[in-house]
Amino acid sequence: MYDDERAPRRVVITGLGTVTSIGLGVTAFLDGLRSGRSGVKPITAFDTTGFAHANGCEVDDFDPADWIHRTEPAELGRATQFSIAAARMAVEDAGLTPGDLRERKVLISVGTTDAESRDLDLLVGQQLEHGPEQLDHRVVRRAQAGRLSSGIVRELGLVDVEALTIPTACAAGNYAIGSGFDAIRDGDVEAALCGGADAVCRKTFTGFYRLGTIAPEVCQPFDKDRKGILTGEGAGILLMESLDSARARGARIYAEVLGYGLSCDAHHPVAPDQDGLARCIEVAHANAGVKAEDIDFISAHGTGTHANDVTEAGAIRQVFDNPPPTISIKSMIGHSMGAASALASAACALAITEDFIPPTINHRETDPECGLDCVPNEARPARLNVVQNNALAFAGNNAVLILGRYEEAV
Amino acid sequence: MTTAANHLDIEARDRIKEIICDILEIEPEEMTDTSRFKEDHEADSMGAIEILSQLERVFGTDIDQAELSRMVNLAAVVTVVEEAIAAQSDPAN
Asked: For the domain that residue A357 is a member of, what is the CATH number?
């Protein structure tokens, strides 16, 4: 039993920071989600000669100097720049200043798949061409996963803070948000900046290409003609705080974090396991204190590969007698790796606040093997109370997050 | 058209066998021309892709990923590699 000092706190989302291929900042991201904007274009991050096809979802209108003021942008890798920019956006969106956060105990938790692998690509190229003694010192110094979270600390000048970078690949955004939820709930911190960040890089594109999982043109989750993923990039950072703290300062509340579930089934290096995911969804429901029938829509991992979509749909049907609408924003922003589930969480929070379900675009005909209502091509107005955000990662790292509408008690 | 000229010599066949055994982590004597990678040697899709990419590197040729479904045993892989090399030297390509 808890005494009053130790009663678990309720956790709410009061700020959103989003760096995406369909818009920078929460207003542009929301507009993109509502209108079903597509972020796909030919990849420019590296020389794509030799690949039969090389489309992706890059962030192409990003100037780090717009967001990063206390650090020299050239000292930061691209994923770190995204992470810091999204964190600053989230703080501003929450109506707070870095000074406000300096007075609080804060957790920074950023999930990632690749961290600064784009810099590692660059360094490997330099070493092959000129030898190891010619490596660019500045790039060597900045190519660290820890920077994704410590960069935020440095930029915002935080003092009483823990900084974590969580490397659980494509489910890392949800993992990071879960860690923030726990820390606030237990009273370890008063605020948390959590999410994920990644930058398009040659290594990851090539890996997926070699597995035969890169779509030639567009990403079509749950479509019978789906051909795979598109690699994307960006960052999603959520500012979370306790309900008491949000109410005390009269903050706008996007949504409440009700709970989450993790399952690490370690079943296979790349193939998703249906039972492992179904177990993860059940754990999330139990942790959040909701039942399957309470879920109003599911933001799916929905990569658009044959294996993911059919396995994920199978797991959903295993848990839900009547699955709710199940969408994938990867149809719009591609697979932004460690940022993916963080940006999907932001999309879920916006969906609750703005009363709509984002669409699954590029959809022609639903694969009967998936057999879900994926809200094809057009956003749908809907009053949402409880939503579920799925994330799956290689090696069976699954993380499912449950968000709910927050309503003032009358 | 695959002609006799495109048949791989013993050395090349041994090299293919060596590559596959290395990836599947088995001894060469465990593998015959017709023992099946998946059923007899516990290969999975990742192993299959690794075999394909190693063969492409060693033989300097492109093998279409669709050929994976044919590459079920050593004899079949040798045929696929022979065809890939033949296709490459075919002026029609």
From this structure: 3.40.47.10
Cα torsion angle, A22, A404, A396, A144, sign? positive
Site from B46, B55, B62 to mutate, A interface, most A CB atoms within 10 angstroms: B46
Is A374 designated active site? Answer: no
Neighboring chain B residues of A210 at a CB cutoff of 8 Å: 49, 53
Q: How many domains does chain B have?
A: 1
Query: What's residue A3's pLDDT?
Result: 54
**Under 8 Å CB-to-CB from B9, ≥6 apart: which residues?**
none
Judgement on whether residues A332 and A212 belong to the same structural domain of the protein: no
Q: B44 in contact with A at a CB cutoff of 8 Å?
A: yes
Sequence-separated (6 or more) residues with CB below 8 Å from residue A129: none
- Which domain, by its residues, includes A394? 259-404
Structural domain count of chain A: 2
Among A189, A219, A248, the domain boundary falls at A248
C-alpha pair distances (Å), A109 with each of A192, A193, B77 = 8, 6, 47
Q: How far is CA B42 from CA A273, B26, B35, in A?
A: 18, 10, 11
Instruction: Say whether pLDDT at A5 is over 70.
Output: no
Q: Chain centroid to CA A139: how far?
A: 26
Chain-centre distance for alpha carbon A260: 14
Which structural domain range is residue B43 located in?
A: 10-89
What does pTM read for this prediction?
A: 0.92
Pair (A178, A301) in one structural domain:
no
Distance in angstroms (rounded) separating the CA atoms of residues A403 and A381 = 18
Q: Which residues contact A380 (CB under 8 A, 6 or more apart)?
A: A325, A356, A357, A359
Token readout for A154 is 């440095």
Say yes or no: A101 and A138 in one domain.
Answer: yes
**pLDDT one-digit tens code per residue, B48-70:** 999 999 999 999 998 988 899 99
Nearest to A334 by CA among A325, A326, A345, A343: A343
Closest CA relative to residue A23, chosen from A13, A41, A37, A44? A37
- Please check whether residue A338 lies inside any domain of the structure: yes
User: Tens of pLDDT along A317-374?
Assistant: 999 999 999 999 999 999 999 999 999 999 999 999 999 999 999 999 999 999 999 9
Select the residue of A210, A268, A271 nearest B49 (Cβ to Cβ). Answer: A210
A383 to chain B, any CB pair closer than 8 A? The answer is no
pLDDT at A342: 98
Q: Give the CA-trace dihedral at B12, B17, B20, B24, to 10 degrees.
A: -160
Show residues of chain B in contact with A269, CB under 8 Å. Answer: 46
Which of A223, A248, A273 finishes a domain?
A: A248
Give the domain CATH number at B25: 1.10.1200.10
Contacts of B53 in chain A (CB under 8 A): 210
